[in-house]
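Researcher: Go.
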Amino acid sequence: MNPQLRRLILDLGPLLVFFAAFKLGGFFAATAAFMVAIAVALVLGWMFERRLSPMPLFTAALVMVFGGLTLYLQNETFLKVKVTILYLFFGVILLGGLATGRLFIKYVFAQAFDLTESGWKKLTLRWGLFCLALAALNEAVWRNLSTSLWVDFKVWVILPLVFIFALAQTPLILRHGRDETEND
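Model: Structure:
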């Protein structure tokens, strides 16, 4: 299987399991299924790639902690807030790194493309602000809409927004990409 497709399935699979389990069994069943699915995705990722990427590992840790609190206390709020915390964390890490001269996004995307320093800085700023916007958007949605609408939002709005935003960065990546002669 294509490694990029496999990674996409491992990253999105647990979210789709959560969505399906919510529709079939409700929020707490979906939370339990999500926790199992993310653990399985980590194990499969390790088996196929012989490494654990920091982002999926951090996400899994948050799911286990907040999912566990959700189930133990029978309170949906914990898992809903996990999304906010995740995006807030990524946004603060990216923007804090940018402010201190550390371009953490470079570690994530360096294998995919090679950018000028200016390109990495612009991409970091954009992703950092986007993550903060997603955190604020999640807060607004879970606090003002029903759980069912929040689950739909999480799967059918946030996920497409991330893909659209990533695609929208293509002109920046093309404009700031290093060509082979620059690298020599």
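Model: The mean pLDDT is 92.
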